[in-house]
Each structure stands twice: as C-alpha cells, then as structure tokens.
C-alpha cells in the first residue's frame, strides 16, 4: 500500500486512521483519489478536504459504528461508501464483540478493494452477465464464494479461533485478508478465465477444472496433498483442485504486489536494478520478472527479521518455478484488463461495457 501523509500537517497517517495524531485533523480515505485526506469544517457545517482541489465530502454511514473511514462526495445520498455498499449481510451488532469483529473484517475487505481499485479491476458492476462482488459476514457459516458472493465466518475475526483453525489444518499462514484475497480469486476466475480464449492455457497450467470439485476436495481431505506438491504449487491446498490452485495463486499474487508496493513506498528495496529516481509501481509493472526480483530478496530479509524477533516467517512459502509460471499468467491477465479499463475510463467510459477486452496475446 502507498504511504499516506496528513494533508494538513504532513505527518504520516495510515489507511485505517480517523484522526491525525499530530494536528488532530479528522481523516478519511478518498477512494476516487486513492488517498487519505485531512478534513476541515466549512462555514455551513459541512466537511471539506484539505489540500489541492478541495472537495465537499461526508463520511460513509458506517462511520457511526466505528468500522469505516471512507469518504463520499457531497450529493451522494446512498449513505454507504463504494466498499460498504458491497455488504449484503453484516454481523448482529447486539452480539458481544460483533462490532470489533466487523471492524476487523471491514479493514481486510477495504484493503482488498483498495488493491482492486489500484489494478482497475471490476468489482461492483455486472460483467458479461455476471454480478459484482457482495459480502456476507455471518456466524456459523462456511467461508467461501458462490456467484460473486463472498461469505466469511465471523469466527475468522477472532485471533484465537483463527490460530486454532490454522493449526488444525496445518496451514503456515491464515488471515482475514488472505481469506478475502483467496475467495476473490474464485470470483475473478469467472470473469477473466471462464468461457474466454484463456481457458486452454489455464488448463495447461492449472489442470482441468471440469473434474468433480467435491470429489477432489474429499480426496484431498482424506489423503492430503501429493508428496511432491512443493514442486508445482504455492501451497498444499492449491493441489486439491484447479480452482483452488488458481485462487491460491491469485491470493499470493495480491500478497506480493501489495507487500512490494508497501516496501517501495517506505524506501525499502533490495532489487539489483533499482532506479532511485523512480519508485517501482508493483500494481502496474509490465514485467512479472521485475516484480519477483524485488519480492524474493524482500521476503528473505523480512523472514530473517521476523525470526530475529522470535516470530514465524513473514512469508512462510517457497514458490517453485511452476507456481511462478502460473502467477505470471495471472499477472498478464490482470495487467491487460486493468490497463484496458483505465484507458476506457480516461476516455469517458463509466462501466457500461460488459465484455472484457481480448487478451489473446497473454
């Protein structure tokens, strides 16, 4: 994630902040500019962003629950920001601890939406007859995806329960953001791959998704991954079915671009080809190899730092060449679609196009 500064005093601020700790200015995230902005009251008791080209804004209605700091333009009467408007079901706020759980889920979801915005990927519009993303945050449900609806079990917001599940399933990593990235991968498979010219290459890389999904998962749960799974997959679970391989690969791709972006924004780069005059933008990188050249030394350094503090590895995975080839496929699709949509929007397109561009060269 990019680095943010208070537009009033210049102090460092963070994505979830609602006040600047130095000057006390109220803060909010302005999605149309992908930045945090300090706010000031106007003579007529409204709010205005501080800085160049000030805007009249108001907070999302969910700010009253302490779960959202996103801003909306004056005149937008929907009440909910672009991210909160994706919620179909939220926790019962009368239940003990539900608001804190919802806040954790919202933070993870908004980090996902931020990344999708940076990539110019569709998420809140119908694409080729397929609905946009929606979210259910509920107790006792199974975390998963179906037809654009991502469901997350509220227990995943409990650190103790999440760690218990991580150990039960012998996972090296488990987080709310990881869940959402993975489940969003299932959605984008339907948008970017299913019934497109890319399905044949997908099957060459990931396998034939037409094999019975439930049978494949049952077999995985009973027997575990193949003994040589480390040579082909980003994780053991990725070996269970081609759809899960894609979703895991997608999630790791989002892990990588966001972590590299955050490191670069904070002046941390270990790449041999670094250009001090221009910060590397992992979200719009043309070459996948350039991204990995930054990612590998970064993870080695951060894993060593984590161990020096007595913690588990920052990134407890080793990506084999076969997994990197799959990730490069994801990268090519994402970059091509994002750039095409960015060009269309710059020319006045506002999302009416339902069919994605031809990506036959990727």
Order of helices and strands: EEEEEEEEHEEEHHHHHHH
pLDDT under 50 segments (min length 5)?
351-355
Q: Tell me roughly what share of residues is in helical segments.
A: 25-40%
Q: Strand arrangement, largest sheet?
A: 3-4-5-6-7
Please tally the β strands and state the result: 11
Average pLDDT works out at 91
Radius of gyration: 21 Å
Report how far the terminal alpha carbons are from each other: 26 Å
Shape: globular
How many individual domains? 3
Domain Zinc-ribbon: 4-95
InterPro entries: UCP012641, Zinc-ribbon_6_bact
Protein name: Zinc-ribbon domain-containing protein
Pfam families: Peptidase_Mx, Zn_ribbon_DZR_6
List keywords for this structure.
362 residues; alpha+beta; 3 domains; 38% helix; globular; Zinc-ribbon_6_bact; UCP012641; Zinc-ribbon domain-containing protein
Q: Layout of helices and strands, plus pairs?
A:
Elements lengths: L3 E2 L6 E2 L13 E4 L4 E7 L5 E3 L6 E4 L11 E3 L13 E3 L8 H21 L15 E5 L5 E3 L2 E5 L5 H10 L7 H17 L6 H8 L6 H11 L18 H24 L22 H21 L12 H26 L16
Parallel strand pairs: 8-9, 9-11
Antiparallel strand pairs: 1-2, 3-4, 4-5, 5-6, 6-7, 10-11
Helix pairs in contact: 1-3, 3-6, 6-7, 6-8
Describe this protein's structure.
- The protein is globular, with a radius of gyration of 21 Å.
- The strands form 3 sheets. The protein has a 5-stranded antiparallel beta sheet with strand order 3-4-5-6-7, with no helix packed on it. A 4-stranded mixed beta sheet has the order 8-9-11-10, with helices on one face.
- Helix content is 38%, strand content 11%.
- With 362 residues, it is of the alpha+beta class.
- 32% of the residues are buried.
- It holds the Pfam family Zn_ribbon_DZR_6.
- This is Zinc-ribbon domain-containing protein.
């Amino acid at each position: 994630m990019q680095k943010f500064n208070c537009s009033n005093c210049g102090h460092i601020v963070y994505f979830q902040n609602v006040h600047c700790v130095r000057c006390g200015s109220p803060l909010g995230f302005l999605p149309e500019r992908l930045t945090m902005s300090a706010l000031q009251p106007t003579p007529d008791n409204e709010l205005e962003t501080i800085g160049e080209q000030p805007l009249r804004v108001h907070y999302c209605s969910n700010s009253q629950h302490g779960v959202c700091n996103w801003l909306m333009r004056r005149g937008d009467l929907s009440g909910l920001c672009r991210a909160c408007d994706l919620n179909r079901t939220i926790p019962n706020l009368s239940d003990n601890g539900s608001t804190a759980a919802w806040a954790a889920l919202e933070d993870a979801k908004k980090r996902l939406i931020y990344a999708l915005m940076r990539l110019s990927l569709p998420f809140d519009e119908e694409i080729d007859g397929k609905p946009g993303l929606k979210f259910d945050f509920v107790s006792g449900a199974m975390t998963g995806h179906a037809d654009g609806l991502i469901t997350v079990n509220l227990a995943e917001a409990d650190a103790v329960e999440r760690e218990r599940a991580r150990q039960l399933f012998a996972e090296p990593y488990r987080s709310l953001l990881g869940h959402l990235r993975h489940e969003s991968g299932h959605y984008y498979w339907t948008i970017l791959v299913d019934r497109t010219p890319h399905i044949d290459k997908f099957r060459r890389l990931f396998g034939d998704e037409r094999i019975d999904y439930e049978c494949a998962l049952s077999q995985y749960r009973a027997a575990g991954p193949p003994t040589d799974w480390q040579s082909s997959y980003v994780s053991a679970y990725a070996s269970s079915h081609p759809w899960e391989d894609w979703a895991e690969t997608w999630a790791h791709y989002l892990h990588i671009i966001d972590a590299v972006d955050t490191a670069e924004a904070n002046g941390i780069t270990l790449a041999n080809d670094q250009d001090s005059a221009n910060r590397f933008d992992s979200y719009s990188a043309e070459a996948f190899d350039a991204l990995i050249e930054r990612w590998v030394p970064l993870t080695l350094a951060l894993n060593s730092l984590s161990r020096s503090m007595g913690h588990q590895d920052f990134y407890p995975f080793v990506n084999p060449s076969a997994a990197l080839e799959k990730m490069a496929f994801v990268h090519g699709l994402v970059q091509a679609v994002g750039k095409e949509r960015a060009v269309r929007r710059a020319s006045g397109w506002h999302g009416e196009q339902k069919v994605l561009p031809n990506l036959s060269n990727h």
